[in-house]
C-alpha cells in the first residue's frame, strides 16, 4: 500500500469506522501468554504475619491491585523464550494495577541492581509479553545499572481487557502512577523507554506530563498509524491512530531516537521525521544503526554504547545546564529586587489640635 486512494480509505475507515478498531487491525498482535502470575503470600496488615497461599490468577478473576498487601510470583510457560534460573526469578517482582478504564494489568519490577542510577519504564513492542521480555530486561538493566519497570498492555499476557489505543494510554498512566506510589521514585530518576508500538504510549505520557521523566528513549518509533500503512501520507487524518508526530514537540525532557536504517516494518524516515519535531533544546544526538532492521538493533554494539552515553554523559550535562539556568534566574531575580528602590509607605500627618492645649 503505497498510495492513499479513495478505495483504500473506504476499506480502512468505513469497515469498521472506529479508529480504535482500525488501530487493532493494523497494530495489535497479542501473543499467546507465556507466563502466569500466582499469589505467593498475603500479608496481614494488622499483625504483619504472612499467610502462605499459592493459586493461579487468570485474567478474569478478581484480585487486589498494587495498593493491597498481596505478593505474586511469575511462572513461565514452555512458550517463554528463556527459562530463568532461581536467581533471575528472585529479581522479578510482579504486581497488578487497575487503570482508569477499569482493566487490571500486569506489571513487572526488575531489580537488577541495589543502587540503580535510574529507573526505566519500558513499553515493549508488539507480539511479545512480559514473559518473553523478562530475560532481556535483566541483561539490559544489569548492563546499564538501572532497574526496569514494564507492563503488559490490556489484552496481553496476564492483563485484562482488549488491546486498543485508549487502553494503551491508560495502561502506561497506571503503571507510571504505581511506580511513584509503590516505589517512591522521583521524576528525576525516571527514564521512559518505548520500543516500536511502545513509543506510542511513551510519547503520549511524556507530552501530557511535562515533568514526568528525565529522558525519553524512542526505539524504532512510528509517526502515526496512517503513515505506516500508507507511506505517502503527508498529513494526519481525522481518524488517524497513534498520532505521535503531533505530540512529540510537547515533550520537555531530552529525547533519544534509535532507529535501524534497514527497518522494513517502520521505515527509518519515521525516526527522521520525529527527530525533526523534537523541541530543539531537548534534541540530543540520535542513533541511526546502519544495516539494522526492526528487531535486531539490540544485537549491534553501538546500541548499549549509546544508552550508556545517555545515562553517563547526556543526562548529567543537561541536568547541570538546568541547574545553572535556574541559578542564573534566581540571581537575576535577586539583583532585580535589590536594584529596585524601596517604596516608602505614605504617612498621614495629623496636625495637633490648636484648641486642646490652648490656655
UniProtKB/TrEMBL annotation:
Region (Disordered), start-end ranges: 324-359
InterPro entries per record: AB_hydrolase_fold (IPR029058), Hydrolase_4 (IPR022742)
UniProt-listed Enzyme Commission number(s): 3.1.2.22
Segments forming domain Serine aminopeptidase S33: 115-225
UniProt keyword annotations, A-Z: Cell membrane, Hydrolase, Lipoprotein, Membrane, Palmitate
Entry GO terms, CC: endosome membrane; plasma membrane
Main location: membrane
Biased composition (Polar residues): 340-359
Subcellular location: Cell membrane; Endomembrane system
Catalytic activity: S-hexadecanoyl-L-cysteinyl-[protein] + H2O = L-cysteinyl-[protein] + hexadecanoate + H(+)
Annotated Low complexity bias: 325-339
Gene3D superfamilies cross-referenced by the UniProt entry: alpha/beta hydrolase
Membrane topology (UniProt): Lipid-anchor
GO molecular function terms attached to this record: palmitoyl-(protein) hydrolase activity
A Pfam cross-reference name: Hydrolase_4
Family: Belongs to the AB hydrolase superfamily. ABHD17 family.
PANTHER family recorded: ALPHA/BETA HYDROLASE DOMAIN-CONTAINING PROTEIN, PROTEIN ABHD13
Name this polypeptide is given: palmitoyl-protein hydrolase
Source organism (scientific name): Adineta ricciae (Rotifer)
Amino acid at each position: 500500500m503505497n498510495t492513499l486512494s479513495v478505495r483504500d480509505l473506504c476499506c480502512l475507515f468505513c469497515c469498521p469506522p472506529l479508529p480504535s478498531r482500525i488501530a487493532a487491525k493494523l497494530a495489535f498482535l497479542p501473543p499467546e501468554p507465556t507466563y502466569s502470575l500466582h499469589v505467593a503470600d498475603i500479608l496481614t496488615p494488622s499483625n504483619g504475619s504472612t499467610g502462605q497461599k499459592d493459586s493461579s490468577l487468570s485474567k478474569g478473576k478478581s484480585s487486589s491491585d498494587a495498593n493491597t498487601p498481596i505478593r505474586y510470583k511469575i511462572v513461565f510457560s514452555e512458550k517463554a523464550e528463556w527459562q530463568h534460573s532461581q536467581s533471575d526469578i528472585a529479581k522479578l517482582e510482579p504486581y497488578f494495577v487497575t487503570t482508569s478504564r477499569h482493566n487490571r494489568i500486569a506489571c513487572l519490577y526488575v531489580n537488577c541492581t541495589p543502587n540503580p542510577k535510574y529507573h526505566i519504564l519500558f513499553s515493549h513492542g508488539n507480539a511479545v509479553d512480559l514473559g518473553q521480555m523478562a530475560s532481556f530486561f535483566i541483561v539490559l538493566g544489569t548492563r546499564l545499572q538501572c532497574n526496569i519497570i514494564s507492563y503488559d498492555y490490556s489484552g496481553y499476557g496476564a492483563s485484562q481487557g482488549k488491546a486498543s489505543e485508549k487502553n494503551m494510554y491508560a495502561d502506561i498512566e497506571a503503571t507510571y502512577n504505581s511506580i511513584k506510589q509503590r516505589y517512591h521514585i522521583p521524576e528525576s530518576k525516571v527514564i521512559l523507554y518505548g520500543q516500536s508500538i511502545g513509543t506510542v504510549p511513551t510519547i503520549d505520557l511524556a507530552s501530557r506530563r511535562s515533568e514526568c521523566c528525565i529522558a525519553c528513549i524512542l526505539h524504532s518509533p512510528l509517526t502515526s498509524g496512517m503513515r505506516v500503512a500508507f507511506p505517502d501520507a503527508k498529513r494526519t487524518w481525522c481518524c488517524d491512530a497513534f498520532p505521535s508526530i503531533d505530540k512529540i514537540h510537547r515533550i520537555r525532557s531530552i529525547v533519544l531516537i534509535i532507529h535501524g536504517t534497514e527497518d522494513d516494518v517502520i521505515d527509518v524516515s519515521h525516526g527522521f521525521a520525529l527527530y525533526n519535531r523534537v523541541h530543539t533544546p531537548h534534541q540530543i544526538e540520535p542513533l541511526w544503526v546502519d544495516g539494522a532492521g526492526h528487531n535486531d538493533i539490540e544485537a549491534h554494539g553501538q546500541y548499549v554504547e549509546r544508552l550508556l552515553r545517555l545515562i553517563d554523559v547526556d543526562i548529567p550535562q543537561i541536568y547541570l545546564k538546568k541547574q545553572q539556568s535556574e541559578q542564573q534566574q534566581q540571581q537575576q531575580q535577586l539583583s532585580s529586587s535589590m536594584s529596585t528602590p524601596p517604596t516608602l509607605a505614605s504617612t498621614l500627618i495629623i496636625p495637633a489640635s490648636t484648641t486642646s492645649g490652648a490656655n
